[in-house]
Amino acid sequence: MDRIDTNANVGDRALNKDIADAFCEECRSVFENWATCRIVFADLPSQAERSDADVLETPIGQCIERVYRMCLEAWISQVVRLNDPGVQRGNQNLSIDRLCGADGWTVAERVKIDGLLKRLTGLPKCLRAARDKIIAHNDLPTRLEDIARGGFPEGMDEHYFNALADLATMVWRKWCAADAGPLVKNQFFEFNLTVLEDDELSAICQARKLRACLAKGIQDDCELLNNPNEL
Question: What are the CA-CA distances from residue 63 to residues 46, 92, 138, 226 (Å)?
Answer without folding.
Answer: 17, 38, 23, 19
